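Q: For a teaching session next week I want to show students how multiple molecules come together into a single three-dimensional assembly. I've collected the sequence lines for a complex. Could you give me the predicted structure tokens for the whole thing so I can convert them for display?
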Amino acid sequence: MKFNLITRFSLCLCVLLGANAYAEVAVIVSANNTNASIDADTLSRIFLGKASNFPDGNQAIPVDQTEGATARESFNEKVLGKNSSQLKAYWSRLIFTGKGTPPKESGSDADVKALVANNPNLIGYIDSSAVDGSVKVLYSF
Amino acid sequence: MLRIKPTLLAVAVLASAQASASDDDLRINGFMSVGVGMLSTDDIAVSGFDTDANFSTDTVIALQISKQINETTSATTQLVSRGSEEYDTNATWAYISYAINNDTDVRVGRLRTPFFYYSDFLEVGYAYNWVRPPEEVYRLDAFSSVNGIDVTHRFSMGSTDGSVQTYFGRVNAPYTIGDEKYEFEAKNISGIVLNLNRGNFGTRLSYHRTDLYADLDPAGSRTLDSLLAAATSYGRGDDFDISGQTAQFMGAAGTWDNGEYAFVAEYTALRQETESVLDDNAFLLTGAKRFGTTTVHATYTSKRDLIEGDAIQKNLKKMAQLHKQAYILGARYDYDTGTAFKFELQYQDEKTVQGTDGESGMLYSAAIDLVF
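A: Of course. Below is the structure for the complete assembly, covering every listed component.
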């Protein structure tokens, strides 16, 4: 019991410290999307053009924020595990062969939220503070 | 300063710049490499370099225009101007792509022949660490674009993603070696490529075959004409002619990349039915380590012609035999997203050239690569 409490306490502490260290980013879909969650691997494959479906089988179309946006840098690094130069090299291997195109650059938190809210096939990421009832959070980091 | 002729490419740049403002379905991408290379000695031959600084061999500019025609159909063309060809503009790719479904695409037109791991983005310097892919393995230049059709099917099994590409077509391959010009033709060229990726691991296997033709003439004065004449005098003309004989090419590559370290191993083999063109084996091993924006890499590569057959065949083939290897050490610096600077040292070791002992020497190279 005591052990359990300590564990819980340190867990809370970690979460708090973590929240202080960087703004949380939420991966969002439309409130009408039927998926409840998504794992990091599937998420990364959708954004790298390797997979094109949600876990429920529906088509998934990723949208990026504008290059340089904080949420995008954080998403690239934490979910895709690549910096912007590595991603550029990755996509240049596909673009010039017609084998893939990078997710469309779709503006800021507000722009991405508005797009995603209106189309259940889209998936994007925004700063957690911008989340509201029009969208559903599938994953956050 | 680059002298770019006001060719088709320039016209296309202007036309596309105007169109892009109004049309959302039009995508324009481009890449450019400006490179310089110099050999330490004229005793060796590497990719057309000599002992004076050469700015044209590694210099390439390309523009790709894609138009989404409807939900399932798109048209793409890639126009390339190469310093090695006096900046004449050629279409490396020009195809219509049709999506049969979400996972299957058919492309018809002019495509890259998918011989190698780096074939698809052979000239997109930004996509790899070298200044240029090593010529020991990256040969068959004359056959690098095919006119035909291909079908690519993508699939996933658990966390393994893969694709199967099959193609069929024809290649007209003018081939110049020294002052000699040949017209090669690969008819009914076909092949299959299997790609598998799982986490940090990737593999690529490919097999290709064709009916090979060339404009050889026993009365002519080119090397292969003389070879054919000599073989004919021994009563072995049929063995050395190139008129529909089968040629086969096989490749296997393995990759591992965790973002910090990357390794590629690629093995390829060419097998000819005609005795005029030698069979060969070639491979490369390369490793890279990334330090933030700087990547250092090291490569070993080797190509060896095979001398097989009876005594007459062996004697004739030895006159053309080539066996060479190279060690490459280089660094790539990512200046910003879309621009990279590269420096490279290559120790070229020619073991055997036309049957006699070869020489060795250094190739120094530097390049700037951009994608936009």
